[in-house]
Amino acid sequence: VIAALTPKQLSGKKIVMTAGPTFEPIDPVRGITNQSSGQMGYAMARAFAQAGADVVLVSGPVALATPLGVTRVSVQTAEQMRQAVMREIAQAQVFVGVAAVADYRPLEVAEHKLKKTASVDSDGGRTITLTPNPDILAEVASLPAAPYCVGFAAESQNLDDYAEAKRLRKRLPLVIGNLVSDGLGTADNCVTLYDETGRYPLPPLSKPVLARRLVDELAARLNKA
Ligand code: CTP
Ligand code: CA
């Protein structure tokens, strides 16, 4: 009864977020992707919805059910993810980039399935030319009326330096960093929060528990912002 009468922490907030990998096609049956399972993003979407937020989850291809109360927009490429985010962002108070967005995509997408022996290099190898993808999080953070922007930094080394550099470069109030040895594809996650006041290491937590903790961390910062 008490819980039902207590206003939820994120009531009245619209949160747009990205999750999962992107898939950048090479030809009709092949493409470039990564090992992101989407678990952290989906756990966060669920926790945000349970905290009363209106959640739009722009998701790359994952094998996960959409959390109850979450609006999911399914995309494949970074450019599709960017467009889906931009359609939703004007009304949002918060943007959270959890997706592992491909930094590059093939410059050309073959209309037909590539044949093994066609257009090989003189050394017998094969070259795919890549072109940069848009940085969705940096673009949202630089909007004139930018929402409160949260980034993730999954690094394999130098976590403090790289995470704080990302926060400053993309002009984010909050970055959530972890060493990939402690996170990617695993159940437990050990993260450190980086904001303008310093670094805040959290203990190792399961992704659902961490997601609820991040709701608290976000709500506290939104109340101060
Ligand atoms: N991100 C994004 N669009 C991209 C690349 C990254 O929105 N094209 C977001 C991710 O969702 C994440 C944050 O930016 O929240 C950091 O992503 P990351 O790949 O760690 O940063 P990069 O700037 O791409 O740097 P690098 O890959 O060199 O570490
Ligand atoms: Ca990247």
List the helices and strands and how they pair.
Elements: H1 2-5, E1 14-19, E2 24-27, E3 30-32, H2 39-50, E4 54-59, E5 70-74, H3 78-88, E6 94-97, E7 104-106, E8 130-132, H4 136-141, E9 148-155, H5 159-169, E10 174-179, E11 188-189, E12 191-195, E13 198-201, E14 205-206, H6 207-224
Parallel strand pairs: 1-4, 1-6, 4-5, 6-9, 9-10
Antiparallel strand pairs: 2-3, 7-8, 10-12, 11-14, 12-13
Helix pairs in contact: 2-6
Bound molecules: cytidine-5'-triphosphate and calcium ion (CA).
Domain DNA/pantothenate metabolism flavoprotein C-terminal: 10-220
Binding site for CTP: 103, 113, 134-137, 152, 166, 170
EC number: 4.1.1.36, 6.3.2.5
Helix content: 25-40%
Mean model confidence by pLDDT: 94
Name the beta content range: 25-35%
Structural class: alpha/beta
**Low-confidence runs:** none
Task: Give structural notes.
- The protein has helices at residues 2-5, 39-50, 78-88, 136-141, 159-169, 207-224; strands at residues 14-19, 24-27, 30-32, 54-59, 70-74, 94-97, 104-106, 130-132, 148-155, 174-179, 188-189, 191-195, 198-201, 205-206.
- It is built from 6 helices and 14 strands.
- The model has no long low-confidence stretch (mean pLDDT 94).
- Helix 2 packs across helix 6.
- It has 225 residues and is α/β, with parallel strands linked by helices.
- Helix 5 links the parallel strand 9 (148-155) and strand 10.
- The strands form 4 sheets. Strands 5-4-1-6-9-10-12-13 form an 8-stranded mixed sheet, sandwiched between helices.
- It starts with a helix and ends with a helix.
- The structure holds cytidine-5'-triphosphate and calcium ion.
- The site of cytidine-5'-triphosphate has 15 residues, from helix 4 and strand 9.
